[in-house]
Design goal:
mainly alpha; 17 helices; 85% helix
């Protein structure tokens, strides 16, 4: 590692250091979220409430496809970073080449499965005669285009990990701004409705993917593509997958939970409730993605100082990030509780959708204040090399707490019970996270490091 970077990580004031590392990461995660949020805003305003509900049906399929992107992308970024640290550039480029082939193979398989069984999947997800046509119209374009999303997002992470965080940020911004510009052109200008939103998204992904791929064929890039490495090697594939398995499992769990949620909403509230969930997810996702970016900015500071035994700097960074994250989720809670109509109106003007969504937003985000610390603490354990605690915390929220809540609460509270499942699981996940952290702090004290 460069001496200047080492000195900064060890000595520079934490707030300034966090700002330096967090800005590119926050921009990257927020831009990722903006793709889907912008689509929902334009579709809700330009096509209608049922189109918004149809778009909500697409979540499980898109999450399923994204999971395989994370499997390759996260694992490749980590492996490339490790090999570059060891000055093994040839091995890093071998990993890069294998990852490209693996991405193409997995994309073809998952896209084919999704297209062949799309109708059956949408019915299983809780789609109706009113919403399924909108979902199909969107998915028949975005699912084949998911290969572009894989190349764009996965290799953006590799670009960042190989020492180009600013370039990675700019690449993501180019795609996001393209989407913001093209959405109204296709939806309103060309009167293409939800199909126009899908086309705009795919074009934006293509633009972003082109910039990313161009980076890895340039001669001055630290790692780049070489034809001789475009042959899968079992050892390299296993190395990639072993690291990518954790985010892959969490994303798949998210897809399954989404299926349960949509079915419960369909049974207790109908198509409008399904659409309301899409609005809630969009609003919450923007804030959670901000916190994830902030946590990613925290990781190199915490990891370096933990390895160096500077536990005071580790904890100073952690407490600062927790405070910022709590402020962000606090803003989300205030907006959802006191101004839900204003939030919902960004997505729809349909009176019934407004009424259902405003109540749903207020109930679903009742415990949103604690979400910030829970996300940060999970990322903290990953940063200090205790990945299993991070994975347990992330999966406990979705599998251990949320699934039983979705299955039980509606029997007693009807549709409100579905909305209340989220805050209950958020509270329990936050308690679990703080228990893990409290135990870790005790360990630090026993080691006389704190």
């Amino acid at each position: 590692m460069d001496h200047k970077i080492t000195y900064q990580l060890a000595n520079e004031k934490i707030p300034r250091l966090l700002l330096h590392y967090a800005i590119p990461a926050v921009v990257g995660t927020m831009v990722n979220a903006l793709y889907s949020v912008v689509d929902r805003i334009y579709i809700g305003q330009g096509v209608g409430a049922m189109a918004l509900s149809g778009l909500a049906l697409t979540f499980p399929i898109l999450l399923f496809l994204q999971a395989f992107g994370m499997l390759v992308g996260a694992g490749t970024a980590a492996r490339v970073s490790i090999h570059l640290g060891k000055k093994e550039n040839d091995v890093a480029e071998n990993v890069l080449g294998n990852a490209l082939i693996l991405t193409l193979i997995l994309s073809v398989i998952t896209i084919t499965v999704s297209l062949v069984f799309m109708k059956e999947l949408l019915i299983w997800f809780g789609g109706s005669e009113q919403t399924i046509p909108y979902a199909e119209e969107y998915l028949y374009i975005t699912v084949p285009g998911n290969i572009l999303a894989g190349l764009s997002f996965s290799y953006n992470a590799v670009m960042r990990a190989s020492g180009y965080p600013r370039k990675a940020m700019i690449t993501m911004l180019i795609g996001a701004f393209t989407n913001v510009i093209l959405d109204p052109v296709f939806i309103f200008g060309l009167n293409m409705g939800i199909r126009g939103a899908a086309i705009a998204t795919i074009i934006s992904m293509a633009v972003s993917a082109a910039f990313v791929m161009h980076h890895f064929i340039q001669k001055d890039s630290i790692v780049r593509f070489h034809r001789k490495y475009f042959t899968l090697k079992p050892k390299i594939v296993i190395a990639i997958v072993s690291i990518g398995m954790s985010p892959f499992a969490m994303q798949l769990a998210g897809s399954m939970v989404n299926v349960l949620m949509i079915n419960a909403l369909k049974n207790y509230g109908g198509d409008y409730a399904v659409g309301a969930n899409g609005i809630i997810t969009s609003f919450a996702m923007l804030l959670v993605m901000f916190i994830l970016g902030l946590s990613q900015g925290m990781q190199p500071i915490v990891g370096f100082n933990y390895g160096a035994g500077n536990i005071h700097r580790v904890m100073e960074t952690l407490w600062l990030v927790i405070r910022i994250a709590t402020v962000a989720t606090g803003v989300g809670f205030i907006c959802s509780w006191f101004f839900p109509d204003l939030v919902v109106r960004a997505f729809t003007n349909d009176p019934l959708m407004l009424s259902i969504s405003a109540n749903a937003l207020r109930l679903s985000l009742m415990a949103f204040l604690v979400v910030g610390s829970q996300v940060v603490i999970a990322q903290f354990f990953q940063s200090i090399g205790i990945a299993w605690k991070s994975m347990v915390q992330s999966l406990s929220r979705q599998c251990l707490f949320l699934i039983p809540a979705i299955l039980i609460l509606p029997d007693y509270f009807g549709l409100d019970g579905v909305w209340l499942a989220a805050p209950l699981s958020d509270l329990l996940a936050a308690v679990t996270a703080w228990m893990f952290l409290w135990h870790q702090i005790k360990k630090f004290k026993k080691q006389t490091l704190l």
